[in-house]
Amino acid sequence: MELGIEGRWALVCAASKGLGKGCAEALVMEGVNVVINARSSQLLEETAAHLRHLNPNVTVLTVVGDISQETTRQAALAACPQIDILINNAGGPPPGDFRDWSRQDWLDAVDVNMVTPIELIKATVDAMAERGFGRVINITSAAVKAPIDILGLSNGARSGLTGFIAGLARQPQLAGRNVTINNLLPGSFDTDRLKSTHQNVAKSSNQEYESVRETFRKKVPSQRFGTAEEFGAFCAFLCSAQASYMTGQNILLDGGSYAGTY
């Protein structure tokens, strides 16, 4: 399917690996020019070289730094001639017991997983509306739909972003000008973060790593973990011309793990 976004410009956050990289790959294959961001300079440049190899006809630019920092956000925004597509993405806060978290822990979680994407949205959506095209995708978590007790920081911060988006996406001055804002909620995708989680479980429970992974895999109705490539493909479709009638939605990609009807 021709997605109708060739020649557009996208800013993809946390794109050096994992789901962010998967999104950048899918967009580049559709002919989208990208500015990619991550904290690791070496890994980011390796990803940029990979993206240029995938499609030599697009421009791939890099901005190194923590996207939750104002200076990095400004550099990323300035690197794009214009931003037609914004992919908000950031690693989730650590798991734990809420009794152990300080006020600063909460503020850090909200800053990275709620305030930072809002700041980037604020900086881009009005210009999108003026041009008559815009796509914002927030990569959040399946925990927004089905909270996980040890992920309280993530549950809270990402749910705050979700509530904010529910109202913003329905503003006529955005939705009526072909600017859509949607949230993608990943379940168990085979990324470094998932592997790290399984390693921690294996260590704390004195089990073999592969045994832990197999136990978690069997819990997924699809009987497998998702891939960054298929996540990216879905993200690219949400950025397409054909997806212009979908906005303000929370789309769960979890292999059927969420057992609810709604």
TrEMBL record:
Pfam families, per the entry: adh_short_C2
InterPro entries, per database record: NAD(P)-bd_dom_sf, SDR, SDR_fam
Annotated signal sequence range: none
Sequence similarity: Belongs to the short-chain dehydrogenases/reductases (SDR) family.
Name used for this protein in its record: SDR family oxidoreductase
